[in-house]
Every structure is written in C-alpha cells, then in structure tokens.
Amino acid sequence: MIDLGISKLALIGAIALIVLGPEKLPRVARTVGTLLGKAQRYVNDVKAEVNRSMDLDELRKMKDTVQDAAREVEHSIHSGASELEKQFSDIGQSSSEAIDAPPVYPQYKHPRKNWRLKQGATPQWYKSRNGVRTKALSGAARVARYRPHKIN
Fold first, then answer.
1. In angstroms, rounded to a whole number, what is the distance separating the alpha carbons of residues 64 and 72?
2. pLDDT digits (tens, 9 = 90+) for 14-50
3. How many Å apart are CA 51 and CA 44, to the nearest integer?
C-alpha cells in the first residue's frame, strides 16, 4: 500500500490549500471523504462476498462427504437386511411344514367411557382458568355465597 506519514499528509494539505484556496477546501475535503468511504465500503463488500463464496464451497464439500457416508450406510443396511431375509426365508421354509398355528388376535378392550355422562367440548382447565362455572348452585346456596358479610 501507499506509505503516508504525517509529514507527507501535511505537505499534501499545504499544496491543496494553496491550489484550491480556503473557500473551496472544506467542500473538496468532504467530497474526498465521502468517496473514500464509498471505496472502503465497496472493498469490504467484495471481501465479504469472497468469504461467503469460500464458505459455500466448504459447505458443498462437507455436504458431498456426508452424502457419500449416508450412501455407504444405506448400502450396508440393505445388504445386511437382504442377508437376514435370506436366513429367515430358509428357516421359514424348513419350519413352516411343522407349525400350522391359527393367527392370534388381540383381545377386545372396552374404552371405559361413561356414555350416559355428557361431556362438553370445552376443556376443564380452560374453564377453571377463565372462571367459568362448572357446577350448578341452588338458589339458597347462591344467596349464601354472595350475601355481603357483616363487619362488626
């Protein structure tokens, strides 16, 4: 890069002051500053894009290795399953002649619901959280519950 020291920057500033004059120098300095800022942002964007593409290449390589390993595992599982299937078919052919048992079905289990009891669609936890009455009160019980208490 360009080696700019304090003495070189002072010399450039003095020449700019002489050439441009004190009236135009602040405006030119602002313009140069904004252009340098835009250039730095552009360079940073390019660096970020290069880093992203490098990361993407690494991820693609990793994806390929994982897919290869998955294919190998799948192949080994299929080969093992086919071997087991052959063994079971050999065993089944030799023992199927000896065993003729009827199929076993699971026993019926009642769901234990009380069909005479009406159940609402609103869950009990929702009713209790929102203060919905779930039990009916008689008139006397309601009066006793909501009667104002005497304060002595």
1. 12
2. 888 888 888 888 888 899 889 999 999 999 999 999 9
3. 11
pLDDT per position as a tens digit, 115-135: 676 666 788 888 888 888 777
Instruction: At 66, give phi and psi (nearest 5°).
Output: -65, -40
Token pair 């835009």 is found at 38
Work out the number of other CB atoms within 10 angstroms of the CB of residue 16. Answer: 15
CB 55 within 8 A of CB 63: no
Whole-number Å distance between alpha carbons of 133 and 137: 9
Which H or E run includes 79? helix 25-95
d(CA 55, CA 51): 6
Retrieve residue 29's tokens. 């300095």
Contact 16, 28 (CB under 8 A): yes
**pTM of the prediction?**
0.38
C-alpha closest to that of 14 among 5, 4, 3, 25:
25
Q: How many helices (H) and strands (E) does the chain have?
A: 4, 0
